[in-house]
Amino acid sequence: MSHLSRVLEAFAVAQGGSAVVWMESPRTGALDVVAAAGGEVTPPDVAVLTDEATPRERATALGPQWITRIPGHTPAWLGVGAVPGGDADVVRWVPMLAEMLAPILQSQWEAQRATDELAERYEEINLLYSISDILGRTVTLEQMARTILLEVAETVGAEYGAIHTHDLASGVLRPVAALRLSPAVEASVIPTDHPVSVPARVYRTRNALLVDAGVLESEYEEAFRDGAMLSVPINWTAPGGGVTLGVVSLSGRRGGTAFTAGDEKLVAAVGSQIGTAIQNARLVRASVGASDSNRRCVSRTICSSSSCLPGRSSPPRRSVPRAWRRRRAWVGTSIISSGSMRGAPGSSSGMSPVMAIGPRSSWRW
């Protein structure tokens, strides 16, 4: 605020009056002194603070002081007072000084807005990179939702929040992650047809909803709501059209400030990524289930006989006589070559050698 201070000091020297500029704080709403060149710096009462161009007078310990609103987007007021030995009709300079200060405040407001927007974009980029890193890991849906909820809440400054996904079987919104639950209260399932619940409305309409404190309050949000709440649908864009898979809800912004359109846009972008992650997790879960089922079927097929296959039967076992099973335990051959045996070489009979085949007990001579 150096430019404001130099202008006020030049006015005090040239016209012999005091000048003070107050600006409304965006967080607390109180008036803070941003520049002064003498005079009473105590913020004026609300009755004096008007948007009219006509200055209003108030009595101070240092003498009368005239208050007027400085034109522009910035909520700022100018106070001009007379000083001993200065211009007695100092009030005539109030409108001109306010017009001189307006461009300075406007340029400072634009610079601050550009700085804030740049900081928000930087936070959004960091958030999207963090979420991309989370989605690239092999984690469960609950772990993924919890981590993303913490990152989003930290970026927008929310202290409460929850992520609900739609249960296809029961048709309700089930909580998969919650932040800063109220004592003795747990996040519960939300019927999608509930007329008051904000997440239920967002799911049905597929549009983001920002409600103030005391508006559309229900027992289903008691665990994760504190004042105003921002709810954004979790959408997954399919080739045949979009599908809403759940809702992201944030509440209790730090400092008591309201959520902005930029917050809604950021959470909506994050919701799209969450929707893609949820759909991928469901597809992986279904694929793993089908793979396990096929593996069990193959295992049963291998471990059992081929008769389990339809239209086929097991080949009959070959029937083997019991006597032959005993006799085939040992098979030997022997050539009777003893000289004392009949027909052996060197005997007088001159008969051929005899071969005996079979178990030893079955040999015959």
Topology-level CATH name of the largest domain = Beta-Lactamase
Could you tell me the radius of gyration in angstroms? 46 Å
- Give the averaged pLDDT, no decimals: 77
Shape: elongated
Low-confidence stretches: 327-358, 360-365
How can the largest sheet be summarized? 6 strands, antiparallel
End-to-end Cα distance: 133 Å
Query: Structural class of the helix and strand makeup?
Result: alpha+beta
Helix count equals 6
Strand order across the biggest sheet? 8-7-6-11-10-9
Strand content: 15-25%
Helix content: 25-40%
* The CATH homology group name of the largest domain: GAF domain
Number of strands: 13
Which class of the largest domain in CATH terms?
Alpha Beta
Please provide a brief summary of the model.
The chain is an alpha+beta fold and 365 residues long. It has helices at residues 2-15, 94-135, 141-156, 198-205, 261-303, 322-327, and strands at 17-24, 31-37, 56-60, 63-69, 76-82, 158-166, 172-179, 190-191, 209-211, 229-238, 241-253, 333-335, 355-357. It starts with a helix and ends in an 8-residue tail after the last strand.
